[in-house]
Design a protein that fits this description.
Blueprint: H1 7-16, E1 26-29, H2 36-43, E2 54-59, H3 63-70, E3 78-84, E4 87-98, E5 115-122, H4 134-137, E6 144-147, E7 150-159, H5 168-176, H6 182-192, H7 203-226, H8 237-245, E8 250-254, E9 257-261, H9 268-286
Parallel strand pairs: 1-2
Antiparallel strand pairs: 2-7, 3-4, 4-5, 5-7, 6-7, 8-9
């Protein structure tokens, strides 16, 4: 299914799964979440538990949106900064508020009014490749616009967060922080744990395979966070295999004891001992009192 398939239904189910101590919810999404039923549900407070849900979602850069962006005076574009060691540095990107009402909302008197922002990044001039026709040369995998004689990469944002609650630059930074490294997690599931190599043409078999992948992902995350050295938290499965799993040794099960023999002075020995100690402490903490 595409990334935007039935987002409102999935969002409602996700809200129902949240623990009881969660009191406030905010939504961040890329353009797959730019669906007006989802936006209206959040803005109108369709959820009885959480009420109005603030959101920031990437919007489609349509021709109508480009027309609205082109009408923004050059003086209203503000630089976007990043912080490095408490020092603000210009990123080369700019943002501006955009007066834009999509066609889907123009025909309803009670339609919600959202806040739209645009982010632009100037594209450096490139020498055309020889032998290529101009239309082919100008094709890029992201929306672009020509403004004031320059070409820009353009990104749109829609939100129901007010001007006084969060300025545009902070809102764009907040949107770009969504889900941490979600794409990397997807890559780990598909490549590191073979989730992208389904074993069968049968749905049930593949579903079972995927559940094994999810269990492996969660178990791997738990071990890295609870039992291994903190430096291993960011390591991918390839590094884990080389340093811990693919270690030559012998496992002996004798007299109700499990013994693992490694070569003398192997660097993984201390890693295994410390991991076993931490796991044992966790096991003791889980035992019922008395």
């Amino acid at each position: 299914m595409p990334a935007g398939f039935e987002q409102l239904r999935v969002f409602k189910e996700a809200l129902n799964c949240l623990p009881e101590n969660v009191e406030k919810v905010k939504l961040r999404s890329d353009t797959a979440g730019y669906q007006h039923d989802l936006l209206k549900y959040c803005e109108k407070g369709g959820n009885n538990r959480f009420g109005r849900i603030e959101f920031a979602i990437g919007c489609n850069v349509t021709q109508a949106f480009k027309t609205a962006v082109a009408q923004v005076p050059d003086s209203e574009w503000q630089p976007i900064y990043k912080k490095e060691k408490s020092i603000k540095i210009k990123t080369g990107s700019e943002w501006a508020e955009v007066c834009f009402v999509p066609n889907e909302l123009c025909h309803s008197k009670d339609a919600p009014v959202y806040r739209y922002l645009a982010k632009r990044q100037r594209l450096e001039e490139e020498t055309p490749l020889p032998g290529m026709e101009e239309p082919e040369q100008l094709k890029l995998p992201f929306p672009t616009m020509d403004m004031q004689g320059n070409r820009y990469k353009v990104f749109g944002v829609v939100t129901n967060i007010g001007y006084t609650d969060m300025n545009g630059e902070d809102l764009i930074h907040w949107l770009h922080e969504r889900c941490g490294k979600s794409e990397e997690v997807h890559a780990v599931m598909k490549e590191d744990l073979a989730g992208g190599r389904l074993p069968s043409a049968d749905f049930g078999v593949n579903a079972a395979w995927w559940w094994i992948i999810i269990i492996s992902l969660n178990l791997n995350a738990m071990i890295k966070n609870l039992a291994l050295d903190p430096c291993m938290k960011s390591k991918r499965m390839k590094a884990i295999r080389f340093s811990i799993i693919n270690i030559p040794g012998r496992v002996i099960n004798h007299s109700r004891n499990l013994v693992m023999r490694l070569s003398n002075g192997h660097p993984a020995y201390e890693v295994f001992v410390e991991a076993r100690r931490k796991i044992a402490l966790l096991n003791g903490a889980w035992l019922p009192s008395g």
